[in-house]
Amino acid sequence: MENGQETVPERALASRVSKKELRRWMADNAPAFRELMAYYRGALARTESEVRLAAEELALRRGEPPVEALRAAVKQPEEIVGRLMGGGARLSAEALAREMDDLALLRVTCLSTEELAALADALAKRAEVRVLRREDRLREAEDDGFRVLRLVVSVPTALGGRAREMKVTVELLTPAMELWLRMKERAGRGKPPVPGQADEALRACAELCAELDERFRQIQYNIEHNVITK
Asked: Which of 113, 121, 183, 226 is deepest in the core (most CB within 10 A)?
């Protein structure tokens, strides 16, 4: 490391060293990672607070709070090692913070896709929140079938008298997709009897979840607009 800048050999190291060697490197640089993770935990708490305030603003106008559940997580060292081993990030704590958007993740569940969009808009208007990227995959699903409204935001976070901007990924999804996502995570920890079989089954379930969300959306619309259906 020269003048705080990563050298070409250091960048190449991440894809060449063994997992044991990489873990040793992380242990040697533990103070920098502990500080980084502390900032991310603070950023998650700040983002969760901003989401709740945005939800309260919507509730004043719409009558009901849109948020059903919040789930926050900071990536574990094992996950970071896996990303480094795959060559997906450079070998320094600061490089990870710059290049990885999902080190800190906040999942927000709302009953309908309309509430997801309204909450995302309200969050983007918060003075302390800066939206770096917005990805709407509610209409056009990701390859595995997952439908989500994803925001990468930057929030100010202070630690030990020092403030810095930290990135947090906010994923807004419906209860059906939240359940689907939990099943996908569980499937990823096991070994399906036939390669690809679990992926195909999950993709089919994702389509059913999308159909369920659309039916709920239509019911909500009918109730709010006094639409009578046969």
From this structure: 113
